[in-house]
Design a protein that fits this description.
The chain is of the alpha+beta class and 329 residues long. Helix content is 29%, strand content 24%. Helix 5 packs antiparallel against helix 8. The protein binds 2,5-anhydro-1,6-di-O-phosphono-D-mannitol and magnesium ion. 2,5-anhydro-1,6-di-O-phosphono-D-mannitol binds next to strand 5.
């Protein structure tokens, strides 16, 4: 008998824990709609003249690509007026985002990177969107900075959308990690990967060995270890698109790392809307995310765009990174 066709809407309504029903479920649905719109634009990028740079820079001083700006705008426009959120934080905006006074405010805060790995856009390589959702600390207010500056342990849900050979929506609201694939003909995300877990035996490591000479000696030793272990022997795969590297490692087992470098001591990955949400997903899939010393979920950000060293994936491989790094202390 063939397996039943389950849309993301049906799954959200029937399979979620009680607390995730209601506003949180509809919020996922809004994000799924944003995902479809971003996917459509990504697929047609070269035809629509949305490749290349916008001529502006974001808070990190990075040049914004047209698709970065488009994706950010879609995430914002689909979520500012729904009454489900009271604040947002985007990689592309300096400050946290207030919900306009003329709209009612909700109980949730959404942090997101609208288009991650965007240096890959112009070369047709997989990119992604990352999001995390917190509950507001105090229902009585319209959202404040402290509602946004939270550690990953406080997340109630997180997920990503991967724009690859197919578009997938992967999320967790604390009860398993589930993946849905977009059927472009009918415009629906259908359940294809229920209860995703890191396989016990990892297959890959994903670090940019081009930066090896800029790493701390203990990270270099970890890199050497990854390259030489035989039980199991690992292969290197590095796309340079965090969502894509994380997704592959979730399916086949592995570790993604972005270590600090001589001129970039905390590495490149942002804690609040990249590392935190992926560490949440990793833990709910039996894996682990660390900055090399402690769980990424236990670090409280001081700033919205704070960077952190990252090792994330199969627990055994991430704990090995911690072992090398602790030896140095
Ligand atoms: P971005 O948010 O500006 O796209 O940067 C994050 C990306 C990650 O997706 C990726 O893993 C990393 O930067 C690649 O950086 P590098 O080219 O230095 O290896
Ligand atoms: Mg990013």
């Amino acid at each position: 008998m063939s397996s039943p066709l389950i849309t993301i809407e049906r799954f959200l309504l029937s399979q979620q824990p009680e607390y995730a029903k209601g506003d949180l479920t509809t919020l996922f649905y809004d994000i799924a709609l944003a995902a479809k719109m971003i996917a459509t634009q990504t697929r047609r990028a070269a035809l629509l003249d949305v490749l290349g740079y916008e001529g502006t820079t974001n808070i990190q001083g990075e040049r914004q690509r047209k698709l970065d700006v488009y994706a950010d705008d879609i995430m914002f426009k689909l979520n500012d007026h729904t009454g489900r959120l009271c604040a947002m934080v985007s990689e592309e905006r300096d400050d946290w985002i207030r919900i306009p006074e003329n709209y009612s405010k909700g109980h949730y805060v959404m942090v997101y990177d609208p288009l991650d790995g965007s240096s890959n856009i112009d070369t047709n390589v997989t990119i992604g969107t990352i999001f995390g959702i917190f509950r507001v600390l105090d229902d009585g207010n319209r959202g404040r900075l402290e509602d946004c500056l939270r550690c990953g342990r406080d997340l109630v849900a997180a997920g990503y959308i991967i724009y690859g050979t197919s578009t997938m929506f992967v999320y967790s609201a604390g009860a398993g990690v589930h993946g849905f694939t977009l059927d472009p003909e009918i415009g629906e995300f259908l359940l294809t990967h229920e209860n995703m877990r890191f396989p016990e035996n990892p297959a890959y490591y994903s670090l940019n060995f081009g930066s090896y000479r800029s790493w701390e000696p203990e990270v270099q030793q970890y890199g050497d270890w990854l390259q030489t272990i035989t039980e199991p022997r690992l292969s290197q795969r590095y796309i340079g698109s965090l969502v894509a590297d994380f997704h592959r490692n979730l399916l086949y087992g592995g570790v993604y790392g972005y270590p600090g470098e001589v001129n970039l001591p905390n590495g490149k990955i942002r804690l609040l809307y990249e590392a935190g949400p992926l560490a949440f997903l990793a833990e709910h899939a039996g894996g682990y995310g660390s900055n090399g010393k402690m769980s990424l979920l236990d670090i409280k950000p001081d700033g919205l765009h704070q960077r952190t060293q990252v090792f994330i994936g199969n627990r055994s491989l991430v704990e090995k990174a911690e072992e090398f790094i602790r030896k140095q202390d």
